[in-house]
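[job 4471] stage=fold_predict status=RUNNING
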Amino acid sequence: MASIYRLKPRFQSLLRPLVRRLAAAGCTPNAVTWAATALSAAAGAAIALAPGAAGALLALPAVLLARMALNAIDGMLAREHDMRSRLGAMLNEIGDVASDLALYLPLALVPGVPAVPLVAAVAAGVVAEVAGLAAPLAGGSRRYDGPLGKSDRAFAFGTLGLALGAGWGGAWVGPFLWTLAALGLATAANRVRAALREAGGP
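[job 4471] inference complete, writing structure tokens
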């Protein structure tokens, strides 16, 4: 299925010169992972502390783009500069889910955002990531199938933040979030099916 994840190789190519400089400077993947998590937590706290403020909401797309860049950089440092570690692999996966929770859940405090579908959308995203992580337990590989992977969720929530910050909220927000929840569950189901297919069946 179509997914922003397919653009990852091009995105990495743009970041590669920076990654080489960071590696030469002694920057580690774990430091970048922590930076991505801290950025998400800070941005989420800014929304939670002033949920009606346009600035924090309008900044959400930029924060998500920076977070995606940091997520790509930590993986490239690990793979391309011989900095892999078991701790790093765990931090990378835990950090992604923790960052989603820290960054997206505060949106439930924003006026005009219904809390139930917002929480459902975030929870469905977590289920999708767990499904991808569980695939190796069934004998498959880590799954990144869509239609709503991590990058797609970031784009969707970034768009939501931009719209809310610009004052374009309204009755569409609830259905939009329910759609994200449904797509998240569909993503989880796709990852389970793909993992079982890869492993040779149930």
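[job 4471] summary: The helical segments are 8-24, 29-49, 54-58, 60-80, 86-104, 115-134, 150-165, 173-199.
[job 4471] exit 0
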